[in-house]
Amino acid sequence: MVNKITGLTNIEGSLRKKISCILDSVGVEYRIFSRVKTLQSLEEKIKRKGEGYYSAANGKKVQDIVGIRIVTYFYEDVDILWNILKKKTDYYDAQEDNPKENEFAVIRKNMICKMDPQNSQTLEECKSEYDSLKYVDNTYEIQFRTINSEGWHEIDHLLKYKCKQDWEGLNDASRMFNGVYASLETNDRAIQSLLDDVAYHQFKHRRWESMMRMKYKLRFTEKKLSSDIIRLFDEDSKLAKEMYRSDRANVLFQMSSHSINIPITFDNIVFVINRVQIHNQKLRDLEPENISQDLSVLADR
User: Fold this and answer.
1) Phi and psi based region of residue 45 (left: phi greater than 0; alpha: psi -120 to 50; beta: remaining)
2) Contacts of 205 by beta carbon, 8 Å cutoff, 6+ apart
3) pTM of this prediction exceeds 0.85
């Protein structure tokens, strides 16, 4: 029999490892956090919602006994990682707010996924020991945030969401609090725009490795862009421009969709971009044999 601490902790570790492997394979910059909801927290949530809310007739269950949080360095990566994980996990549902044109409000981006059979079985074994777990579904939650907004969300959850009564009648304070989040989102967008400008500057000055670094913003290894690729870009301005204009989101999505797990070097990312979008034979000829084999699933794209 699996006790509560071991069983739920094992589920958390299993899910965290799976998600980390998916994200590491495409080289994105991120931080990952996870937690298991304590029995005390679970019971408080049930009390706050009311047991009738989780009745069989209502058909609702607690879906975040395990919570995973993905914190991205860059604003654009929230949507990219959302789309990757939606495809690579057993996606079930979403808690996603739509932005309003004339009103600023915090936008949640949370994904609900089903546990795999092994973790589901572990959860059932835990339920046999703890009555409160009967309100829990075999799902888990993934939250997406940027590194700039992470601290704000923590404060909001601790001192606003859980203490709504403390903010009653304090409309100005609530607006100011949300205004802080608005400034953080503005900063996220400003950083993204600034890095795009730097990538364009490096492209115009024919600094190809720097262009790739600013354009793709991945965990590149220290291995430099090869002299053969540099020479090709120097000789073929059209090819260099196609590389600069490549669709980063699509490239990363294709890498994940086809389980391309190769070292994140400048050369390798150039080879992936070429396979997915450009189809230049001279670049194909530069692929090492082992990398060419790994990318063969992209050959017909």
Assistant:
1) alpha
2) none
3) yes
